[in-house]
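Hmm, how's this folded?
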Amino acid sequence: MIDSKLKEKAAFAILLAATIIVIAPVALILAIILINGLPALSFEFLFSIPRDGMRGGGIFPALVGTFYLIVGTALFAIPFGILAAIYLNEYAQRNRLTRAIELAIINLSGVPSIVYGLFGLSLFVEFLGFGASILAGSLTLAIMTLPVIITATREALSAVPRSFREVSFSLGASRWQTVRGVVLPNAIPGILTGTILGLSRAAGETAPILFTVAAFYLPKLPTSVYDQAMALPYHIYVLSTQVPNVSVKVQYGTVLVLVGMIFILNIVASYIRSYFRKKKTW
């Protein structure tokens, strides 16, 4: 009895230590970003264009460009990702082809982002002739985000009990009526959570937009999907490596804004998940 209690305490201590080891560096990084970045935050910093060779002014063009890219990515990735997941989970037969597709989706989730950037450069920028533009960048980020959305949607659909489908079929509903009226409403929390987390990853990527959309310096806002745009991830890279004598608070302030955007997206995902879970009756 004593040995089992000691083993339990030892296991608890090991798990607690592992948790602290994971959390402590993240907390330290956030603390450094907050301490150095908060002094830079102001109305002018958020809503003015860069000046003095990007050593002064604000980040408004990069902020707007990042927003456009997130919206464009969502418009392309969400519909195709959800529809593909519905087909694979609800309609496709289990055979070699579907297993190969599932394996490909899993492998695509682990492909480095720079590979997606080179793919977007070859296909969208050069072959299709979109040029370095918001359209090319959004399509590239959408392809990169698709595996995450498909995987999250499939897991959410699979979590809906099989008995729900059987009851719907027994009442005379077709497969699509069952998917639309029974499966999807119960899978919405997982679908939305996975979708928003996928968009959060896309918002922080630098390599894909480096080849397809990002501009070094644009003192104006884009007016078309075929225009280049500044973006926060690439802007951070430029401030850190290409522009000399930049104030540390400007660098960390830009990082803080990007982290804040991603943090807000994650909070929205958590709120949506908890909101819809409260409505579940099972």
Observations:
- The first helix runs from residue 2 to 37.
- The domain at 41-279 is CATH 1.10.3720.10 (MetI-like fold).
- The mean pLDDT is 89.
- The chain has eleven helices and two strands.
